[in-house]
């Protein structure tokens, strides 16, 4: 691993921690409508496209980062559906 890759991995760690914190905040919010379905749809779409781009350019850091972002979008959307069902909306 090159030294410059450590910068990419550090950015990945900060970004994923931030996204998971946002998902947690949305999960604990009183209003089940606090989560935007379109945010998750856009995030999922962008992540899939960035994974393809990153793979095509051979960037392992970005393949992993965008795969993790994709997982946070899917997790966020699933938690949003669960929360809305529980609230009867």
Radius of gyration: 15 Å
Beta strand count? 0
* Main β-sheet description: none
Q: Which oligomeric state applies?
A: single chain
- The run of helices and strands is HHH
Cα separation of the termini: 48 Å
Strand percentage: under 5%
How many DSSP H or I helices? 3
**Level of helix content?**
over 70%
Q: Assign an overall shape.
A: elongated
Poorly predicted ranges? none
Q: Average pLDDT, to the nearest integer?
A: 86
What's this model, at a glance?
It contains 3 helices and no strands.
How are the elements arranged and paired?
Blueprint: H1 3-28, H2 37-57, H3 60-87
Helix pairs in contact: 1-3, 2-3
Please give a structural write-up.
The chain has 89 residues and is mainly alpha-helical. Helix content is 84%, strand content 0%. The chain has 3 helices and no strands. The protein has helices at 3-28, 37-57, 60-87. Helix 1 packs parallel to helix 3 (60-87) and helix 2 (37-57) packs antiparallel against helix 3. The longest helix has 28 residues, at 60-87. The chain is elongated and about 50 Å long. The relative contact order is 0.18. The model has no long low-confidence stretch (mean pLDDT 86).
């Amino acid at each position: 691993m090159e030294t410059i890759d450590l910068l990419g991995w550090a950015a990945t760690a900060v970004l994923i921690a931030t996204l998971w914190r946002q998902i947690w905040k949305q999960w604990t919010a009183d209003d089940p409508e606090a989560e935007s379905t379109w945010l998750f749809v856009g995030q999922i779409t962008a992540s899939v496209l960035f994974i393809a781009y990153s793979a095509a350019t051979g960037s392992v850091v970005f393949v992993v980062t965008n795969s993790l972002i994709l997982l946070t979008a899917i997790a966020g959307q699933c938690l949003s559906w669960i929360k809305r069902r529980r609230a009867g909306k």
